[in-house]
Each structure stands twice: as C-alpha cells, then as structure tokens.
Specification:
Blueprint lengths: L10 E10 L4 E3 H4 L7 H8 L3 E3 L7 H16 L8 E5 L10 H8 L5 E5 L5 H14 L5 E9 L9 H4 L4 E11 L5 E8 L7 E2 L2 E9 L2 E8 L3 E2 L1 H23 L8 E4 L4 H10 L7 E2 L2 H4 L6 H11 L8 E8 L3 E8 L2
Parallel strand pairs: 4-5, 4-6, 13-14, 13-15
Antiparallel strand pairs: 1-7, 2-3, 6-7, 8-16, 9-12, 10-11, 15-16
GO cellular component, one term: cytoplasm
Family: Belongs to the thiolase-like superfamily. FabH family.
Keywords: Acyltransferase, Cytoplasm, Fatty acid biosynthesis, Fatty acid metabolism, Lipid biosynthesis, Lipid metabolism, Multifunctional enzyme, Transferase
Length: 336
C-alpha cells in the first residue's frame, strides 16, 4: 500500500463498497419513442446511452438495502457491527426519512440512522459527515448509502431533462483506523444564490380550514434545470474545489491514481479532467450505462471499478460531486 495517508489520531478507512440498480433499463432508442430525440442526439450531447428505471413496486429503501448488503459483505463485518447509517438522497420513499427503513431491513439494531440531502453532492457530503463521527471517536463503523430514484420527478415530455437521469444506489463502509487516516483532504461548498439553476420545487394549492385560516397542500414540480448555467458552474468550480482538496491533502494532481466525478454529463467530465491535466485513462466513468443517478453516481461507479479490479487497495482517488443547491465538493481518499 502507498504510505501517503495522514498520521495522528483516529482516522478512517473505506473498506467495502456495493451498488444496486433497478432491473428495468431504458435505452436511447426506447426513449426516442417517448419524446422527440434520438440516440445520436443524446449520446453526442451527454455521453448517456442507457439508464435504469425503478418500477412502481420498487422503493428507494430496497435499492439502498441491496447496495448496503454488498458493501457490508465486502467489509467483512455484520449489520450488528454498524454504529451509524447515513442515507444521502433527495428522493426518499418517506418525506420523514428512509434511512431508518434501511436500518430495519438490514437488522442493524445498534445503528442510528438519518437522511442527508445535498442532491448530487450528497454522497461526498455524507462521506465527510460520517468521517467526523469516526474521527471524534463517537462511532467505529459507518455505513454510507447514496441512492436516488429521479424517475419519480422527471417530466417525461421534457427532452432536455428526461434523457439525463436514471435510478440507482451505491454504498460504502467506513471504519475507524488507528494506523492512519485515508480521508486525506476535502473541501465542501454551497451557493444558494444559484438555487434556481437546478430545482425540484414544492408546488401547492391553498386550502381553507376555517374562516380566514388557510394551509398549503400539494406535491413537487418536476425537475427543472438551466443546462448551460449548470455546465458553466461545473467546469469552473469543480476543478477549483479538487485543487483545494488536494492542497489540504498535501498532494499534487500527478499523485492521483483516479479521478471520480459525479456522473452528470460526459462533456463535463472531459472538461474537468482537461482543466486538471488528468489523462482520460485515469477518469472513472460508467455514465453511458446508468445516466445521472444523483447521490448514487459516485459510489456506483466506485463499486464497479473496485469489483472489476481497476481500483486497487492504496489507490488515491480524487472525487468531486456537484449539483442542486447549488452544492459542490471534493474529497481525496485512499481505497482500502
């Protein structure tokens, strides 16, 4: 193993990964029967060729549980060993939270569980959050799940957004490590002044209760995005935040083994890698097969790379998430 991890007190090691996607997939050819588009149009503009779509009987907690089971098995622990479960999602089955359902499904009776919402940056925000519980000594084993079912909130008549999104889940297990900290550096950012660039806003209808007292009742509007603004934001802010995280890790770009970005758009991935001077063969991507799975995209791509043998123990990964909020962030970590 490359001995570059930080020394000192209790640190973290990321020792297991898992992923899950719905069994039904929707390729570009099938999508062209729903809206006016084509495989060529989608592929050339986004790099996406296919996406997995949850069926009405599927649930977010189910996908999250399946990914978690795989991560726990790889980590060599049991659900009873887990102290904390963080579910990064924006599309829970229950507005009150779905992490506790995953906890119950797993039988992780000792674990406290909660949801964390930071859209497509959610997994990285969850990674940093979980690490703090470990570093303070509060918990030893943390399960982090990133999962989203965006198909629930897509306008399937809007070809500018419906071609982008897919459903899925990914998970990692983080464990306390006394021989070094494998989370080498991170940087998190938010800018609410640009919230309107990517939204899934609440939509309500007034309902009179009695006399002049009314309440708001409703649901949510479909995903709305200003594509050009999001692209401009990502290609300028993401390289900067990766460089900040590298600085905190006392590392240079040349020391990175892999660049793992939120799988949003192939053009964004290529532009960020180019600005960081990272060759394309160091960029981990599975965007073509899954589309943008929001908080699931980073752990889903990580799990595939680990299980294929591409990512090896000790490899240094620079990861960055970006999306609605607007939120973005980067973390530099060693696998295993």
């Amino acid at each position: 193993m490359k001995q570059v991890f930080n020394s000192g007190g209790a640190g973290i090691a990321i020792i297991g990964s898992g992923s899950a996607t719905p069994g039904v997939s929707l390729d570009n050819e099938a999508l062209s029967q729903i809206v006016e588009t084509s495989d060529e149009w989608i592929t050339t503009r986004t790099g996406i060729q296919n996406r997995h779509i949850a069926q009405p009987a599927d649930s977010l907690a189910q996908l999250g549980t399946e990914a978690a089971v795989e991560a726990i098995a790889m980590a060599g622990i049991t659900p009873a060993d887990i102290d904390l479960i963080i579910l990064a999602t924006s599309t829970g089955d229950d507005l009150f939270g779905s992490a506790t359902t995953i906890q119950a499904n797993l039988g992780a009776t000792r674990a406290v569980a909660f949801d964390l919402t930071a859209a497509c940056s959610g997994f990285l925000f969850g990674l940093v959050t979980g690490a703090q519980f470990i570093r303070t000594g509060a918990y030893q084993n943390v399960l982090l799940v990133g999962a989203d079912i965006l198909s629930r909130w897509v306008d399937w008549s809007d070809r500018t957004t419906c071609v982008l999104f897919g459903d899925g889940a990914g998970a990692v297990v983080m464990r306390a490590s006394l021989d070094g900290d494998r989370l080498l550096g991170f940087e998190l950012r938010s800018d609410g002044s640009q919230n309107q660039c990517l939204q899934l806003p609440y939509c309500s209808t007034p309902k009179t209760l009695v006399n002049d007292i009314s309440v708001s009742q409703g649901t949510y509007q479909p995903i709305a995005m200003t594509g050009k603004e999001v692209y401009r934001f990502a290609v300028t802010q993401v390289p900067e935040v990766v460089e900040k995280a590298l600085f905190r890790a006392n590392l240079t770009v040349d020391q990175i083994d892999w660049l793992l970005l939120h799988q949003a758009n192939q053009r964004i991935l290529a532009a960020v890698a180019q600005r960081l001077n990272i060759p394309s063969d160091k960029v981990l991507t599975n965007l073509a097969a899954y589309g943008n799975t929001s908080a699931a995209s980073i752990p889903l791509a990580l799990d595939e790379a680990v299980r294929s043998g591409k990512v090896q123990p000790g490899d240094i990964i620079a990861s960055a998430g970006f999306g609605a909020g607007l939120t973005w962030g980067a973390a530099i970590f060693q696998w295993g």
